[in-house]
Amino acid sequence: MITLSDVSKCFNRGLPSQFTAVDQVSLRIDAGGITVLKGPSGSGKTTLLSLIGCMARPTSGRILLEGVSPPFPCPGENGLDISSLPERFLTEIRRRTFGFIFQQFNLIKGIGVLENIMLPAYPLGEPHAKLRARAIVLLERLRLERHAGSRLDWLSGGELQRVAIARALINDPAVIIADEPTAHLDSRLSLEFMEILSGLAGSGRTVLIASHDPIVYDAPSAARVIEMRDGRITAAQ
Amino acid sequence: MQPSLERHAHLIDFAISSLLRRKGKNLSLLAVYVLIVFVIASLILFVQALRREASLVLTGAPEIVVQRMVAGRHDLIPVSYGADIVSIRGVSEVVPRFWGYYYDPVFGANYTLMVPDQSPPAEGTIVIGPGVARNQRVKSGDLLTFRGASLQPLLLTVGQILPQQSELVATDLITLSAADFQAMFRLPPGTATDLAVKVANPREVATVAAKIAERFPDTRPITRSEILATYDALFDWRSGMMVVILGTAVLCFIICAWDKATGLSAEERREIGILKSIGWETTDVLLLKFWEGTVISLTAFLAGLSLAYAHVFFFSAGLFQHALKGWAVIYPDFRLTPSLDPYQLGILFFLSVVPFVAATIVPSWLAATTDPDSAMRS
Ligand SMILES: Nc1ncnc2c1ncn2[C@@H]1O[C@H](COP(=O)(O)OP(=O)(O)OP(=O)(O)O)[C@@H](O)[C@H]1O
Ligand SMILES: [Mg+2]
């Protein structure tokens, strides 16, 4: 599904503060199942996720995506090389292929729960009624139907987390990327979160999580755990 | 609907709910904005209406008015000059006019007295402007007392009060018969206040005026276009008062837009980052900001314009009536005829909407071109 070969990400190149956050990483992630990136703080997990998720471009190396059919002509025969695409195309792939769950949830305050969930789909121009219906189905799946009309500010931490998951799912992505998703949750909510994600992985989605929370990487559903240190992969099981 | 239209519909929806989210800030912005548009639009509409009124009045005026000058001052003109002027090529008619001012010491008001060329009131009756009627508290059929030339009181019956529409120019007007006019002022026989000269061909007006000035060195011919020009200068929006008010309003507007342009809050910046991270393109963010700016400035434009319209045409521009028309003792209390000049409104629209939208978009554009991954590290 996703293949990385010799991918590096270097910040502040040419400056005294030059820093290599991801160093020559080669990795293959298959479709379906949960993959967890673990490692100490600063080891490059977030950076690696943002490279895979088309949020930033690698300094060197190639990232191939298979099984995506971009809405523009592309030359690659075995998968799409996203490491050299212009920003517009990257955004296009990102919003159709990836759903993101952030550590801080990154929800927009002051507007409704439903509107937050539909937000990633707005630029795609889907008819409002259809989009709304899909958002409500997602709310029901995440047991949030009670909050369809609520303002975001009234929700508890666990509910916010589930809104964030629903938002990540609105464009029906093949890959879900979550960065430290349990950092703000207690252990009961963390377990519940992993359960939701294993359900999603079971339905064929690829789930990628960066975390140093044992509840995440020791979870039975975490099919694969990759350890990182100083931007390199030190162990993969 | 097409996807691109749906996209706009979604973005407008979200722009409106974004604006409502920062209700306090945006409402105060809108209020200031409406006020500025209101002041500028009121001025434009008011001046426009006054100019229209003035030119309407002048369309019925003679092409040339000939006044006699003595020691640089307006003096009575011998009616006999008229016979000579008629013989000038191009002149179709010369009519002596009788008018003057009457000061009423009791009410402290100045009236304009005039004998109309056509169908003057019958002897003993007068037609008065609405301002006079208000000032003297009289109605049709009442008697008014004037001081005659021989100091005897002159009793005249009010035959009719002029309608409200002609207030601006006729508010202090009294029309009367030639006989009553003589009884009041007793002009020397064979003289008139001035002569109205009718010229059929407008292109000959200047030549005729030059010939009159040449033949009668003691007269001053005033052409209608000169009067129009005087009115124009009086009402011109480049004239002092206008420049001050307009300048202030524009300054307010610039400050307002500048504040908006520099004041992208940390909160707004963060939101732009979030939108980018969940898959919005830079153009989507800009379009959102474009709609936000458009909603605010268009609302302000329409609200300001409607308020100004009501102010000028329903409330007779009450706020600056006195400042701009304080030339008479009797203040006209008039209704201006509604009229809109699309050209000036176009300029107002352009000046009020475009800079504001630009001021909204530019800083957002700077914020939106950052990498989406920065949202992962907030
Ligand atoms: N934009 C940037 N410019 C310079 N250095 C950066 C930038 N982004 C990340 N880094 C550095 O790259 C290194 C890896 O960061 P990254 O966020 O990927 O670590 P992480 O494994 O996610 O850590 P954590 O577990 O604390 O979230 C860090 O040392 C960080 O300071
Ligand atoms: Mg991190």
Summarize the structure.
The complex is a heterodimer of chains A (237) and B (378). Chain A is an alpha/beta fold.
Description:
The complex is a heterodimer of chains A (237) and B (378). Chain A has 237 residues and is α/β, with parallel strands linked by helices. Chain A has one domain (2-236): P-loop containing nucleotide triphosphate hydrolases (Rossmann fold). Chain A contains seven helices and ten strands. The two termini of chain A are 18 Å apart. With 378 residues, chain B is of the alpha+beta class. Chain B folds into two domains: 2-57 and 236-377, no CATH class; 77-192, Barwin-like endoglucanases, CATH 2.40.40.20. Chain B is 54% helix and 18% strand. Chain B contains 13 helices and twelve strands. Chain B has helices spanning 3-21, 23-59, 81-86, 130-136, 167-170, 178-185, 205-215, 224-235, 240-262, 266-277, 282-313, 321-325, 342-368; strands spanning 64-70, 73-75, 77-78, 91-104, 109-115, 125-128, 143-147, 153-161, 173-176, 191-192, 194-199, 219-223. In chain B, the strands form two sheets. In chain B, strands 1, 2, 4, 5, 6, 7, 8, 9, 11 and 12 form a ten-stranded mixed beta sheet that branches. In chain B, helix 1 (3-21) packs across helix 11. The chains are: A alpha/beta (237), B alpha+beta (378). The structure holds adenosine-5'-triphosphate and magnesium ion.
